[in-house]
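lol ok so funny story. i was supposed to be doing the assay writeup but got distracted and ended up predicting the structure for this chain instead. priorities right. anyway since i did it might as well share w the group, maybe its usefull for someone
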Amino acid sequence: MAKLKSEQLQAALSRALRPIYVVCGDETLLVHEACAAIRRAAKQQGYSQHEVHHADAGFSWDNLLMSANAMSLFAEKKILELRIKNGKPGDAGGKALRAYCEHIPDDTLLLVVLPKIDKRSENSAWFKALAGSADVVTIWPVGAQQLPRWIEQRLHQAGLSAEPEALALLCAKIEGNLLAAVQEIEKLKLLSDKSLIDTATMAEAVMDSARYSIFDLVDKALGGDAQGCTSCLNGLKAEGNAPPMVLWALANQVRTLAQLKESCDAGRSFEASCKQLRIWQNKQALTRKALERKRAGELQWLLRKCAHADKVIKGLASGDIWSVLLDISLDLCGVQALNKRTQKQLLTI
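and the output, tada:
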């Protein structure tokens, strides 16, 4: 048995084709791509037939064995794909899989697709029988820390790259949905005539034709428009926008203001500081207005609120995330929705 990670599969397929492949995992896109790679390699070696069997409640395991042992009229090789949705073949299925492994047909490649399996299943007789003649490909989920790198690799495969802020915006938009990431990258290929995707282009791609924009929210907050800010945030919520993306926009702006305040307090001019922080000319008037409202300590307090919002999103702190985002937005506007004592209590929850 060879245990492979998804990124090792292509190299293994190029060396030799195994009679059995087992693909395990819950990351739908990566499971699909691994199976497609196996089918593609098999077809290149003459496996022209392809049968798919779903081992659901009414499945006949005898039919699987009959199909495996049936001689083709034209002696064609075939791929026998078995999908076990719950990962549990049961007694009859376990017996059938062990029987298959005892007499593996020469002209058949068996591809078994399973969800993430537990230790008990991994130690079962049927799985050990499969693994004895198989390459087992385990698909691990792409975590939040690995996601930016994963997206960078996908962009590179598409002939694209992205500015750090643009990459962060896409990560916030997809919320760990890899299929959504691939779809957004395909959209970027159509929208952009440049290989380097900037933040403006990324925003145009991910916001679709939404009536409300996270950038409108930030502009209204910078301008101190509390009513407009509230309406915009409610609109973003109603249109189904992801809280992580809204938080990204707000937190990014608060960090920029904190850096700008520090730079100006150190004696650097506002214009020079804006240039260093890449604050464009058309944003400088709103930015100056917000900077005049906020002291350095208040901006640090806002950053604490953003960190708290991130914990709420991840389930590490209690609270309604949209209420937390509203508080951050209004605070950026210069409006204190909650008194200091209440805010301190919330940040300790």
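The CA atoms of residues 299 and 325 lie 15 Å apart. The chain has three domains: 2-138, 142-206, 212-349.
back to the writeup now i swear
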